[in-house]
Amino acid sequence: MSEFDVKAKTWDLDPVKSERAKAVADAIRIECALSASAHAFEFGCGTGLVSFFMQPYLSRIIMADSSQGMLDVLGDKIRNAGVENMFPLYLDLTVSPPPDEKFDLVYTLLTLHHVAETEPMFTVFHSMLNDDGFLCIADLDTEDGSFHGDGFTGHNGFDRKDLLTQAEKAGFKNIRFSTVFEFERTFNGNEKRVYPIFLMTAQK
Cα–Cα distance between 130 and 128 in angstroms, integer? Predict the structure, then answer.
């Protein structure tokens, strides 16, 4: 089992995760001119926290993750809520091709920093979008490695200029950044650190 499979059943118990997801969803809806008929794709959906906040405003959401444990929890939540426009999909987009369907919006929260090679992902995202479709990436600004701690092999956040360059190379336009959430963690009893979450919005 993956780390995320193990954590899936208790993932939603942390209220900060829900607050963070709502802040990101609200910012996406403000930044992107989306119609109620829009089709969306969430990369690294986890238990669907962001997409449940997006669901009333979209026609269809494909929600992809490589953790079956997360998808199992998500499936239960969808059935319990009785919603009919959310569709979980087991998919590791870093090694497998995306769905044939094209989307008006692709979004992701705190997933990209787990991807070793981020530049190719921008090309994949670009290929998934309809013309003038939106890509929204919410993730950590560059941090000191304390967010995940020792042994983490992903990215310790991102420099916004680096991501802008990667997005431009992939063909995106109208790229902009904003800080949409901040949260605090306490270490060693009294040492506090604040982690900002940015939202990068780009258009095909």
Answer: 7
pLDDT surpasses 60 at 1: no
Q: Give the domain CATH number at 64.
A: 3.40.50.150
Torsion angle, CA of 123/31/107/11, rounded to 10 degrees?
Answer: 150
pLDDT the model gives residue 172: 98
Of the candidates 151, 42, 18, which has an alpha carbon nearest to the alpha carbon of residue 106?
Answer: 42
Domain extent, residue 131, equals 3-203
- Tell me the CA distances in angstroms from 77 to 88, 139, 156, 166, one per residue in order: 11, 24, 31, 35
- Name the residue among 17, 71, 20 with its Cα closest to residue 42: 71
Q: Tell me the per-residue pLDDT of 61-73, one tens digit each, with 9 for 90 and over.
A: 999 999 999 999 9
Read off the pTM: 0.94
85: CB partners within 8 A, 6+ apart: 55, 58, 59, 60, 61
Q: Name the residue type at position 198.
A: F
Number of domains in the chain: 1
Give how far Cα 76 sits from Cα of 31, 73, 80, 86, Å.
Answer: 30, 5, 6, 12
